Automatic annotation (TrEMBL):
GO terms for molecular function: nucleic acid binding. This is Integrase catalytic domain-containing protein. Residues 293-328 are annotated as: Disordered. InterPro entries: Retrovirus_Pol_polyprotein, RNaseH-like_sf, RNaseH_sf. Residues 306-320 have a biased composition (Basic and acidic residues). The lineage of its organism: Eukaryota, Fungi, Dikarya, Basidiomycota, Pucciniomycotina.
Length: 328
C-alpha cells in the first residue's frame, strides 16, 4: 500500500468498481456495468458490459471510451475484487505501457453501491437500465457531494451549465417510445438519485459510528489475518478457520491499514491489509475458557540400579521377520 497524494486536477486519480447482478437489457443484452469516478471532481462514467467479457475486450473499451476523454490516469483505486486483481490489470498495463508497482487498498466511497441500487430500481424507468446511464451521469454531476461540498460541474467548469434536456436524447442507447416527456423522467431520476445518495450517507454514517473502533497496536505486534477473500487457499473453506497464521506488523499506514510479514502459502499475497481484516493473536485460551485447568506434569521416578542402555532392536526384528516371510 502506498500513500496517494491529493492532486488538484481532474482524472489523475480514479475510483473503479463493478456493478453486477443487473438484468439483461438493451440491444446487446448487457448485464454488468463498470463505474469510474474522478476523485477530484466526483464525476462518474458508466460503461455497460457483459459478465463474460474477457480482460482484453474490457481493457480495449476503457481505452477507447474513457482514456480518449480523460487522458491517462496516474492512480486507479479499487478493492480486492478478483475482477481487478486478475488479467484486467495486465491488459491495461499493456495498453498504457505502464506497470503496477503497488496495489492500493484504500477503500473508496461506497457511493458506487448507491448508484448500483439506482440502476436496479424500476420505479422511475420502466424500460432497460442502459437508457438510464446518461440521465444518471447528469444527475450525479449536478449533485452536491459531501467530500467536496460542491457539484462536479462547479469543480470542473466553475459553473453549473444549463443544458437543454431535449439535446440529451441523442446520447441515449434506447429511448422508450412510450415515454411522453423525457424532461419529467430526467427530473425524477435526478431527485431519486439525490434522495438515494442522502439515505445512503445517513445509513453509512450510522453503521460507521456503531461498528468503528479505533485500533490500538504498534509495530512488531502479532496478528492473525482473515483469508475469507483470498483465492487458491489449500483445504476446504467450510472447515477452515478464516483467521490464519501468526504474522508480525512491519509498518503502519495511518489508522486504518497495516503491512504484515506474510509467510508460507500467503507469501504471494499483498502484504498490506486494512485493520478490519486482522485480529490480535492469542497464544492461549484462558480468556475463553477461564475455568479450564491444565493438569501438572508428572515426572516418572527413576529406577535405581544399573544404568540401562537403549538399543534399537525393533527395526532389526522387523527386517528379520520380513526375511523369514520371504523364505517361507
Amino acid at each position: 500500500m502506498i500513500q496517494i497524494k491529493e492532486i488538484r486536477s481532474p482524472w489523475k486519480i480514479a475510483y473503479m468498481d463493478w456493478i453486477i447482478a443487473l438484468p439483461q437489457e438493451g440491444e446487446r443484452s448487457f448485464n454488468a456495468c463498470l463505474v469510474l469516478v474522478d476523485r477530484y471532481r466526483e464525476t462518474p462514467m458508466f460503461l455497460p458490459f457483459h459478465k463474460g467479457d474477457t480482460a482484453m475486450s474490457t481493457a480495449i473499451v476503457i481505452w477507447n471510451r474513457v482514456i480518449s476523454h480523460t487522458g491517462l490516469f496516474q492512480n486507479i483505486i479499487s478493492d480486492r475484487d478478483p475482477r481487478f486483481t486478475s488479467a484486467l490489470w495486465r491488459e491495461l498495463h499493456k495498453l498504457f505501457e505502464t506497470r503496477n508497482n503497488n496495489t492500493d487498498l484504500r477503500i473508496h466511497d461506497k457511493k458506487i453501491l448507491c448508484l448500483g441500487l439506482k440502476l436496479k430500481d424500476s420505479d422511475v424507468f420502466t424500460h432497460d437500465w442502459c437508457t438510464l446511464i446518461p440521465a444518471l451521469e447528469l444527475a450525479y454531476k449536478k449533485s452536491i457531494h459531501s467530500s467536496t461540498g460542491k457539484t462536479p460541474e462547479i469543480l470542473g467548469k466553475d459553473c453549473n451549465t444549463r443544458i437543454p434536456y431535449v439535446t440529451l436524447k441523442k446520447d441515449l442507447v434506447d429511448i422508450n417510445p412510450k415515454e411522453s416527456s423525457f424532461k419529467i423522467s430526467l427530473t425524477k431520476a435526478r431527485h431519486c438519485t439525490n434522495r438515494c445518495m442522502q439515505d445512503y450517507f445517513k445509513y453509512a454514517k450510522e453503521i460507521w459510528d456503531k461498528s468503528h473502533k479505533s485500533p490500538v497496536f504498534k509495530v512488531v505486534d502479532l496478528f492473525s489475518l482473515s483469508t475469507l477473500n483470498f483465492d487458491k487457499i489449500k483445504g476446504p473453506k467450510k472447515l477452515k478457520n478464516f483467521f490464519a497464521g501468526t504474522f508480525m506488523i512491519r509498518a503502519l499506514y495511518f489508522h486504518n491499514s497495516v503491512k504484515l510479514e506474510l509467510r508460507c502459502e500467503l507469501m504471494s499475497k499483498h502484504p498490506s491489509s486494512p485493520v478490519s481484516l486482522i485480529e490480535p493473536y492469542s497464544s492461549s485460551d484462558k480468556e475463553l475458557f477461564s475455568l479450564r485447568n491444565k493438569p501438572p506434569l508428572e515426572i516418572p521416578p527413576l529406577e535405581e540400579g544399573e544404568e540401562k542402555k537403549t538399543v534399537k532392536v525393533l527395526e532389526e526384528e522387523g527386517k528379520e521377520t520380513k526375511k523369514k516371510g520371504n523364505t517361507l
